[in-house]
Write a structure and sequence with these properties.
The complex is a heterodimer of chains A (265) and B (251). Chain A is α/β, with parallel strands linked by helices and 265 residues long. In chain A, strand 7, helix 6 and strand 8 form a beta-alpha-beta unit. Chain B has one domain. Helix content of chain B is 85%, strand content 0%. In chain B, helix 4 packs antiparallel against helix 6 and helix 8 packs antiparallel against helix 9. Classes of the chains: A alpha/beta (265), B mainly alpha (251).
């Protein structure tokens, strides 16, 4: 039996890689306790792009992200993630697709009984066949990359600030060199200084190609305009407009203009 | 179907689905075996005091009650077998499962529930980890070993408790106490009780896990789920005991 693929050794996408979108959502409907959140949403994330979905609170941004990762199922519609139709897949069949992604949760979702080091090493221990030295090298390199010194290695998540937890979450999401990274409100709950640090971190990770594609959901307009190749505005359960940041800022659509001006829909 | 009936159907359906998923994923990779060993400590070693305390006082109470009423018929020399049969067949496995099971299952509910509230279970799923294999199967496998061992130990401690009352309070000869036990109690009695404890261990663990994974409502919901687990474990063990007793009597 062939050994399982070691995702830690996976090379970044090269020219000639599949040309289809990294994410494709078609006709997505999703309701919670009878109240529809997404209403026939159609949306694509081109590969090698950083796409930000913006919308008001409760507009369904996080729902969209969770659908993309297969953490929840749509009521109707079709979802293709990294070239795989995940709509009909059961939990076990989704696992190989998820190993090609990284997910940065809004609250970081660190494993609270594990140290920072063990949190970042966790995906490597589960999916990669590396020596302990190789694990340590990769973990420390990523922690340094997100601006955390070795001194935090032994700390538990409860001993970290919100910004530090978020950075550990980013490091954990990147440790397997994913093709797609999903960010859920990366600057939410952070003070302006930490929000700026996270913005700069995501910008620099994008610049050095830490992942091929990124899908971010946020209501932070400054963050979105700093890091995005494309911005999609989610209003009324559908994507109202997709375009470069400048196009969205100068949108002629009334609902997008109202959203950008901070007015209630 | 009213909301209450829907809620009950959803609960039993969810529990059945989880049971199926646990059995489907029962084969663990080697790197997860330390998790099973860790559960031996959490479920077993840390429950010794609870199980032992309950067992010794159960044995003492049962011996006391038995001796008083048997002495009316001049049959108090049968205190030993009465305690032995009752403890080995019923009291040992059932009380151990209820007391230890309530403790273990509520702990599982609390841990998994808090992981759910803080999105740690979603994080496991997003990393591409089979959370049933990682979080639940090790506990079920550990329970298969721990509950029978604890039951056997509790049985012995309860018999010792019965002996203390029989010998020191009722003035029954200690050798008579043990000889009558070994004369009247057969291996089948021990096997029946320990055999039930395998099932109790699985039932307890699955209820605890299901309630933790299914909880809603944040920290208040976590409190409700943990309390409900203790109640449900007690009721489930008692109901299961009836059917298991019928089963073992048929075998």
């Amino acid at each position: 039996m062939a050994p399982p693929e070691d995702p830690a050794s996976r090379e970044p996408a090269r020219p000639g890689a599949p040309a289809g979108p990294a994410v494709s959502l078609e006709g997505i409907w999703k309701a919670f306790t009878g109240a529809p959140v997404l209403r026939g949403l159609d949306f694509e994330v081109p590969r090698q792009n950083t796409v930000t979905v913006m919308g008001g609170s409760g507009s369904g941004k996080t729902v969209l992200l969770r659908l993309t990762a297969g953490l929840i199922k749509p009521d109707r519609g079709r979802i293709e993630t990294l070239g795989v139709d995940i709509t009909p897949l059961r939990e076990e069949a989704l696992l190989p697709v998820r190993r090609r992604m990284g997910f940065v949760f809004q609250g970081a979702a660190l494993f609270d009984s594990l140290t920072v080091y063990e949190n970042v090493a966790y995906p490597l221990r589960e999916h990669a066949t590396l020596s302990e030295d190789e694990v340590a090298e990769r973990v420390h390199r990523l922690l340094a990359r997100v601006g955390l010194r070795d001194a935090v290695d032994a700390k538990l998540p409860a001993e970290l600030s919100g910004g530090m937890r978020k950075r550990v979450g980013i490091a954990r999401a990147l440790v397997l060199a994913p093709e797609l990274v999903l960010y859920d409100e990366p600057t939410a709950g952070l003070d302006p200084t930490n929000a700026r640090l996270i913005t700069e971190l995501v910008e620099s990770l994008k610049a050095e190609g830490a992942s091929e594609t990124a899908l971010i959901v946020t209501h932070d307009l400054d963050f979105a305009q700093s890091v995005s190749d494309l911005i999609a505005v989610l209003i009324g359960g559908r994507i109202a407009q997709v375009g470069p940041p400048e196009a969205i800022r100068h949108s002629t659509l009334p609902e997008v203009q109202a959203f950008m001006a901070g007015k209630a829909p | 179907m009213g909301p209450r009936a829907q809620h009950i159907a959803a609960y039993w359906g969810g529990l059945a689905l989880l049971t199926w998923e646990v059995f489907r994923n029962a084969w663990l990779p080697r790197r997860y075996l330390p998790l099973v060993v860790a559960e031996f400590d959490g479920m077993g070693v840390r429950s010794l005091v609870v199980a032992g305390t309950a067992a010794i006082f159960t044995g003492m109470v049962f011996a006391l009650q038995s001796a008083v009423y048997l002495s009316r018929f001049g049959a108090d020399l049968y205190v030993g077998p009465l305690v032995g049969l009752s403890v080995l067949r019923e009291l040992g496995p059932v009380l151990t499962a209820i007391l230890v099971g309530g403790k273990v299952a509520s702990g599982i509910t609390a841990e998994l529930g808090s992981m759910k509230v803080t999105e740690q279970i979603d994080a496991l799923r997003a990393i591409g980890v089979n959370y049933v294999k990682r979080l639940i199967v090790p506990r079920v496998l550990a329970a298969l070993f721990v509950f029978p061992l604890l039951t056997a130990l509790a049985d012995f401690i309860a018999l010792v408790g019965g002996m203390l009352i029989a010998v020191f309070e009722r003035r029954i000869d200690v050798y008579l106490y043990w000889n009558t036990i070994f004369y009247w109690v057969i291996i089948r009695d021990l096997v029946t009780g320990v055999g039930k404890s395998f099932f109790f261990g699985v039932i307890v663990t699955l209820i605890g896990a299901h309630n933790g994974l299914a909880m809603t409502g944040g920290t208040e919901g976590l409190g409700r789920a943990t309390t409900a687990t203790v109640v449900q474990v007690s009721v489930a063990v008692i109901i299961a005991d009836f059917f298991l007793t019928k089963l073992f009597l048929l075998l």
